[in-house]
Known about the structure:
The chain is of the alpha/beta class. The protein folds into two domains: 3-122 and 274-295, Rossmann fold (3-Layer(aba) Sandwich); 124-267 and 304-331, Dihydrodipicolinate Reductase, domain 2 (2-Layer Sandwich). Helices cover 35% and strands 23% of the residues. The protein has ten helices and 15 strands. It has helices spanning 12-23, 38-44, 54-59, 75-84, 99-112, 127-137, 164-181, 268-271, 273-286, 297-316, and strands at 3-8, 28-34, 49-50, 65-68, 89-92, 117-120, 144-152, 185-191, 207-213, 218-224, 232-239, 243-245, 254-256, 259-261, 320-321. It has a seven-stranded mixed β-sheet with strand order 12-11-7-10-9-8-15, with helices on one face. A six-stranded parallel β-sheet has the order 3-2-1-4-5-6, with helices on both faces. Strands 13-14 form a two-stranded antiparallel ribbon. The longest helix is centred in the C-terminal third of the chain and has 20 residues, at 297-316. Residues 153, 168-169, 172, 225, 268 line the site of (2R,3S,4s,5R,6S)-2,3,4,5,6-pentahydroxycyclohexanone. Homotetramer. Keywords: NAD, Oxidoreductase. Its EC number is 1.1.1.18. Residues 136-318 form the Gfo/Idh/MocA-like oxidoreductase C-terminal domain.
Amino acid sequence: xxVRIGVIGTGAIGRDHIDRVTRRIRGASVTxxxxxxxxxxxxxxxxxxxxxxxxxxxxxxxxxxxxxxxxDAAHAEHVLTAIAAGKPVLCEKxxxxxxxxxxxxxxxxESHGSRLVQVGFMRxxxxxxxxxxRVISAGDIGRPLLMHCAHRNRASRPDYTTEMAVLSSxxxxxxxxxxxxxxxxxxxxxxxxxxxxxxxxxxTDPQFMLFExxxxxxxxxxxFVNCRYGYDIRCETVGEExxxxxxxxxxxxxxxxARIGTAIDQEWDDRFSAAFDAELQAWVDSxxxxxxxxxxxxxxxxxxxxxxxTVRAQQSGDxxxxxxxxxxxxxx
Length: 332
Ligand code: ISE
């Protein structure tokens, strides 16, 4: 079976996914695209048909599965429409911008009766993160006590805001930490060091976030989106019996001019290209089975609940509690 995919949103990540499905993913093709900017959709469409909006694309008999890659605020609406149509959906992170919308998605999915939604937390498909997950789950570092993370971007776009450091960037580490530690984050705090002179005046950068999990593990996360030197993602877990560190991507070592060096990725799509491929392939493979396998709506909800509390913490300067529902048996 060739899975016929409809892509909603043809901005940077949408175009990246169209290219990926067209050139590298087995068993799928892009048959439909849409974007608020029709000219942009037409430019990215290739062989695919351009639809006037997300609802028309989802309803099309030429679409088996939906990939939501539009602006964050529109995710929930399209995911709910896809669930109502009984179509599998891969939604870029975040699942929705409010916990309430995530809960609506969970309720709709539960009434449908099986998992239809996969959330685009693609770090879970990165080889280094997967190995960390395996080692922690095997108990090789004993009980985890601490986690140190950093999320660094070379430079932020002019429309990037202080809140986006949590909602758009830090949310990746929030999900990765929950997944690696099999634990939920219960409280959050944000501390701001001196800001870099390489930021725009509206932005607080870098930021230092501190999380605590239900079992008492402490996680610190530096989000620094104008670090200048590259796209650098770090994660280190300290356990009772040992320490585990996310490997840097394998790059050859260059020895020249009396120095030793390796290249540093400059953008997210270089650093996580293989992870995105694996994520998309896993999603496409799951479509004919009728049951999504990757990060679930529950994971999307939990990440948004923590992110929302962290935005509160940015504003209050206090430790904020994360108010989360119990995990429904449906997502066990
Ligand atoms: C962007 O949305 C991403 O997902 C990137 O991985 C992240 O590094 C960047 O800061 C976000 O804005």
